[in-house]
Amino acid sequence: MFQILDIGNTHTRIANWDNGKFSDIEVVDTAELAAKGCDFLKYPAAAACVCREVRKQLDACGINFISALNQKSQVDFSLVDCSTLGADRVANAAALAEFYELPGAVIDCGTAITLELVDSDKRFVGGAIAPGRALMRNGLALGTSLLPKSGLLENIPDAPGRNTLDAIGFGVGRGVVGVVRELAMAAKEFMPLKTLILTGGDAEYFRQCLPEAIVPGVEFTLHGVRLAAGIK
Fold first, then answer.
1. Do 121 and 214 reside in the same domain of the chain?
2. Where residue 138 sits, what CATH number does that domain have?
3. Among 92, 107, 111, 126, which residue's CB has the most CB atoms within a 10 Å radius?
4. Do 92 and 198 fall within a single domain?
5. Are the C-beta atoms of 169 and 141 separated by less than 8 Å?
6. Last residue in a domain, options 43, 65, 87
7. In a domain, 98, yes or no
8. In angstroms, rounded to a whole number, what is the distance separating the alpha carbons of residues 224 and 94?
9. Domain membership flag for residue 71
10. With a threshold of 0.90, does the pTM exceed it?
11. Taking Cα atoms as reference points, which of 39, 46, 37, 6 lies closest to residue 226?
């Protein structure tokens, strides 16, 4: 039995891996996880972590934190700078190469929007990083004196806003869709994709503009963490 963790900037997914399947998948606030220290650990654990402070707090717990430098999946990361590659992106590439037809791309729609590209030889060939919906919204509120922090919409807005809040919703909602569509188009121009994956907390939102994409569910990146850690 192992515990597998996908520790993001905002949320963390925790699951047990036993007899070839996941169970007891739980989503918690990352800040809450850090406050627990090692108390939540019941079994040997592997994790992808993109939050430096949380990793510092959990380093003493004996967790196997994956990276491109120590990963054990089939993916070749030799074409990129492994010292700066996020563990979540390593996990996404590992899951993509294990379960889907290549060449393929993963667009991870979370706090940040990331693109991971794996070619037909299972080589990680690069990608992109951009701000997600919440970061775009928060950036407007933090960088201006009068614009308020707006809520996030469930659906892509179809009409320009007639007040400031609605204008922010339209600008952020449509603007971030433009980012994701452009990343998908650029990936297809770079290599002939056979698979396009959408994952992360905002995956369903962006499925509205990329209906051809596969949305595999919460186990996708967890599988990648498992594979990168060498857990069968």
1. yes
2. 3.30.420.40
3. 92
4. yes
5. no
6. 65
7. yes
8. 5
9. no
10. yes
11. 46
Taking CA atoms, 145 is separated from 134, 139, 140, 141, in Å, by 18, 11, 9, 7
> What are the pLDDT tens digits along the chain (232 aa)?
999 999 999 899 999 999 999 999 999 999 888 788 788 899 999 999 999 889 998 988 999 999 999 999 999 999 999 999 999 999 999 999 999 999 999 999 999 999 999 999 999 999 999 999 999 999 999 999 989 888 888 899 999 999 999 999 999 999 999 999 999 999 999 999 999 999 999 999 999 999 999 999 889 999 999 999 999 9
In a domain, 114, yes or no: yes
Calculated CA dihedral for residues 106, 205, 34, 28, nearest 10 degrees: -120
In the block, tokens 């919703």 appear at 169
Q: Do 59 and 96 share a domain, yes or no?
A: no
Does the annotation mark 121 as catalytic? no
Which candidate in 29, 76, 88, 108 is catalytic?
88
* Residue 133 Rama label (left phi>0; alpha psi -120 to 50; beta): alpha
Domain end: 35, 65, 95, which one?
65
Q: Residue 213: CB partners within 8 Å, gap ≥ 6?
A: 107, 184, 196, 197, 198, 206, 207
Is the CB of residue 198 less than 8 Å from the CB of residue 206? yes
Enter the DSSP assignment of 153. P
- 45 and 126, same domain (yes or no): no
Question: What is the rounded distance in angstroms from the CA atom of residue 10 to the CA atom of residue 32?
Answer: 10
CA distance 169 to 162: 11
103 and 136 in a common domain: yes
Same domain flag for 59 and 31: yes
Amino acid (1-letter code) at residue 56:
K
Has residue 145 been placed in a domain? yes
